[in-house]
Amino acid sequence: MWAAAVAATLVGVTLPTVAATPASATTTAYDTTYYKDAIGKTGTSLKSSLHTIISSQSKISYDAVWNALKVTDQDPNNTNNVILLYSGVSRSKSLNGGSVGDWNREHTWAQSHGNFGTSAGPGTDLHHLRACDVQVNSTRGNKDWDNGGSPVSGAPGAYTDSDSFEPRDADKGDVARMILYMAVRYEGDDGWPDLEPNESSTNGSVPFHGRLSILKQWNQQDPPSAFEERRNDVIYNTYQHNRNPFIDHPEWIEAIW
C-alpha cells in the first residue's frame, strides 16, 4: 500500500481510500539504532517496546511550546510563517495568541480526555501539539474523531457535528499518527493517565479518544508527508529527543491495532 501510494504520487494519480494492511514495511535510518528493540515485533509486544523507546524524552513548559511551534510548524515556503493544522493556512509566526485571526496551541489529544492539563508531560508534548487558527481550534474543542458533519468555517474540507471532528484530507493521517503516538507514549506508568484509543465518539473526560477504526483508515488514506517527517526530526533533534514511530513506520499502526 505504501509503495503503491508513493508510486501513484509520482505520476499524479490519486489512490482511493482503502483500509487494507500495508503490503510492505518501511525502513528508516533509525531501525538499527533507535528502533532496534522494536523491529520484528507485533501487537502488544511492539506497543510495549515502542513505549519504552519513546518514553525517554526531554520535557518543555507550556510557555515554551509557543516558540517551539514556530520552528516545528514552520512554512517550508515562508520562514516567517507557520502552517496551521485543519486549515492549511500559512500565517505569520508573530500572530500567536488568543484573538480572532491569531493561531494558538491545539492539543490533538484533547486535554479533557484524561484531564492532564498543560503541565509538562502530555500537556506539552510537541508530537501532538500543533499551530491552529483560534476559531477553528474552538470549533474542534475536545471532540472525538469521526467522518461527517457540517463544513467547518475557516477550514475547507473539514467537518464537524455535536461530538466529532473530521479534518481535511491532507491532515487526516497527521491526526491519526499523533493520536496513536499519545496512546503508546502514555501508558499510566509515569504519573499520567493511560491514554488509549477506542470506538466511542462521546468520550468526555475519560482518557480515551475515538474512533480507532476511523483513525486507522486515515493513516492509510494520508501517508506521512515531508512536513510531518521534518517535524518529527526537529522534535527529535532539538526539543524532546524522542520520535513519533508512526511517522517513521506508519504500518506499525496496523501491526498494533
Automatic annotation (TrEMBL):
Q: Which residues form the signal peptide?
A: 1-19
Per its record, what are the GO molecular function terms? Answer: hydrolase activity; nuclease activity
Region span, Disordered: 140-170
At the top level of its lineage, which domain of life is listed?
A: Bacteria
Name the InterPro entries on file: Endonuclease-I, His-Me_finger_sf
Which keywords does this Swiss-Prot/TrEMBL entry list? Answer: Hydrolase, Nuclease, Signal
Q: What is this protein's name?
A: Ribonuclease
Q: Which organism is it from?
A: Streptomyces vietnamensis
